[in-house]
Write a structure and sequence with these properties.
- The chain has 440 residues and is of the alpha+beta class.
- It folds into three domains: 88 residues, Phosphorylase Kinase, domain 1 (2-Layer Sandwich), CATH 3.30.200.20; 197 residues, Transferase(Phosphotransferase), domain 1 (Orthogonal Bundle); 92 residues.
- Helix content is 27%, strand content 23%.
- The strands form six sheets. The chain has a six-stranded antiparallel beta barrel. Strands 15-14-23-22-19-20 form a six-stranded antiparallel sheet. Strands 16-17-18-21 form a four-stranded antiparallel sheet.
- The longest helix is centred in the N-terminal third of the chain and has 20 residues.
- The N and C termini lie far apart (64 Å).
C-alpha cells in the first residue's frame, strides 16, 4: 500500500504557522500513519489520518481541538499540540505530538515476558499510570479506550508514555469510540452509558491487574466452560459484560484461575501485599456493578507509592520481595521468599513521620528518598534527596542541607551534603522538615 505522505514532503502546522518536513515513517495502522516530522531543528511525531477514517469519525477534529486548547494533563501523554494541513489547503489531515523516545517499549512486551522489569519498576509504572489518569480526569476528560496496546513504558524505571490521545473526549460525550473488549466497563460494553472517568477507572483496574498478575481479572475457570461463539470468539462479551465475575471473588469460587492455563495469576497473586490484593478485590466485586465503588485514581497512586517503598531483597537469593505490614501485624512473620522459599526476617527499614500518614521505607540498596518523603511535597519524586548505598551500608545525603542523627541516648552525628550516614544500629535522623526512626 502506498504511503499517505512521502519523505521530504512539506506540510503546514497551523497553530505554529510553520512548515514541517516529513523525515521517515514511525508506524502505521488502520486509522492513520505516524511519521517523524521536523520543524526547525526539532523532531516531532505526526499522525496523519486515512481519508476514510476522517469521514467516519465526525468528532475527530472537535476532540483534537479540545485537547489542544486544554493542554496536556501530564508529560506522560503523547498529547496533541497542533493541527496540520497540506500546503494551500484548509482541510485538516493530522496532528503533531511529542515523539516517543526509543527507551519506551510496548506494554505488550511485558505481557509476553519479552521484558521483565523489576518489582520496583512495576510499582513506578502503576504509580505513573494512576497519576496520569488522575490529572486527565481532573480536566473533565476521559480516555475512553484504556488498553495495553496504547501504553508504553521504560523497563528500567517504569516511566510511562500514553499514546492514542486522539481518543480523549469530554466525559460522557456521545461518540464512536467505546473501548476495547475485555477492558470496557460492563455498563459501557452493554451500551447502557457513554464512556466516562468512572468507566476509565474500571479499564485502568483491568490494565493494572494485567501488569501485576499477567492475566485478566475476569477470565478464570468460566473461560474453559464457554461454548464457542463466532460473535464473541474470546468470550470477552460474556465474561466481562454479560455476567462478569472476579477470579478471586471471596464469595464465589466458580471462576478461580485454572492451573496450567492461568499459572501467572496463580503465582503472582500471593506475592503482593494484602493491601494491593484487597484493592483489586474491591474494584472487581463492588466496582463491577457500582461505578461509584471503583478504586479512585488517587487511591491507586497512594498504593503504588507505598508498594515501591516496600521492596526489599532476600538475604539468600537476592530476589525482590514485598514488606507486607498487614501480614506481619496479623501473624508476626513475613511470607517466605517467593523465589527460594527461605524464611524472611523483617529487613532494615525507616519510618518517616509520626502521623497516620507516615512513610515506611525499606532500606534496600538503591532505594531513594524524595521531597515526597522528606519535605511534605506529596508525590514529588524528583530530585532524590537521599539514597541507600551498600558499601558501607548507609544513607547518602543527596540534598543541599545538613542532617543530624541521634545514635543511642547521647551520640549526635552530623551528615553534610554528599556524606554517607553508616547504618549499623537503630537511630533517629533529623532531615530538617521531617524526622525518621531507623530500625536495623
Amino acid at each position: 500500500m502506498k504511503a499517505l505522505l512521502e519523505r521530504g514532503q512539506v506540510l503546514i502546522a497551523r497553530g505554529m504557522q510553520s512548515t514541517c518536513v516529513i523525515k521517515d515513517t514511525l508506524g502505521e495502522g488502520g486509522q492513520a500513519e505516524v511519521y517523524r516530522a521536523q520543524i526547525g531543528n526539532t523532531e516531532y511525531a505526526l499522525k496523519w489520518y486515512r481519508p476514510e477514517y476522517v469521514r467516519a469519525d465526525r468528532r475527530l477534529w472537535d476532540r483534537l481541538k479540545e485537547a489542544i486548547n486544554r493542554g496536556f494533563p501530564t508529560e506522560s501523554f503523547l498529547w496533541p499540540f497542533d493541527l496540520v494541513t497540506l500546503p494551500r489547503s484548509s482541510a485538516l489531515g493530522g496532528y503533531l505530538m511529542p515523539i516517543k523516545e526509543p527507551r519506551f517499549v510496548s506494554l505488550v512486551d511485558l505481557l509476553t515476558r519479552k521484558s521483565e522489569p523489576s518489582f520496583r519498576a512495576l510499582a513506578n509504572l502503576g504509580f505513573h499510570l494512576a497519576h496520569s489518569f488522575l490529572h486527565l480526569h481532573a480536566h473533565g476528560l476521559c480516555y475512553r479506550d484504556i488498553n495495553f496496546g496504547n501504553i508504553f513504558f521504560d523497563p528500567t524505571n517504569g516511566d510511562v508514555r500514553i499514546g492514542d490521545t486522539d481518543n480523549v473526549d469530554v466525559d460522557r460525550t456521545p461518540g464512536g469510540i467505546m473501548g476495547t473488549w475485555g477492558f470496557m466497563a460492563p455498563e459501557v460494553a452493554r451500551l447502557e452509558t457513554e464512556p466516562s472517568s468512572m468507566s476509565d477507572r474500571f479499564s485502568l483496574a483491568v490494565l493494572l491487574f494485567y501488569i501485576f498478575m499477567l492475566g485478566h481479572p475476569l477470565k478464570g475457570k468460566r473461560e474453559t466452560e464457554l461454548a464457542y461463539d463466532g460473535s464473541d470468539p474470546d468470550g470477552s462479551r460474556r465474561l466481562c459484560a454479560t455476567d462478569p465475575l472476579f477470579v478471586y471473588d471471596p464469595g464465589n469460587e466458580s471462576n478461580r484461575p485454572v492451573p496450567g492455563l492461568h499459572d501467572a495469576i496463580i503465582n503472582f497473586w500471593p506475592l503482593y501485599p494484602q493491601s494491593l490484593r484487597e484493592m483489586f478485590t474491591r474494584g472487581f466485586t463492588q466496582g463491577l456493578h457500582d461505578p461509584e465503588s471503583r478504586i479512585m485514581d488517587n487511591d491507586w497512586r497512594k498504593e503504588f507509592a507505598r508498594l515501591k517503598d516496600s521492596v526489599f531483597y532476600c538475604a539468600g537469593c537476592t530476589a525482590e520481595n514485598f514488606f507486607d505490614i498487614d501480614r506481619l501485624r496479623a501473624s508476626g512473620s513475613l511470607a517466605p521468599c517467593w523465589a527460594c522459599g527461605r524464611a524472611v526476617t523483617p529487613p532494615p527499614r525507616m519510618r518517616i513521620g509520626h502521623s497516620k500518614d507516615f512513610h515506611l521505607v525499606m532500606l534496600s540498596p538503591g532505594a531513594q528518598l524524595f521531597p515526597h518523603h522528606l519535605e511534605g511535597d506529596t508525590y514529588n519524586f524528583s530530585p532524590p534527596l537521599a539514597e541507600v548505598v551498600s558499601s558501607p551500608f548507609g544513607l547518602k545525603n543527596l540534598s543541599r542541607q545538613k542532617w543530624t542523627a541521634r545514635v543511642g541516648e547521647q551520640t549526635m552525628l552530623e551528615v553534610p551534603p554528599g556524606a554517607v550516614l553508616k547504618l549499623d544500629v537503630s537511630c533517629r535522623i533529623h532531615f530538617g522538615r521531617a524526622e525518621a526512626d531507623v530500625k536495623i
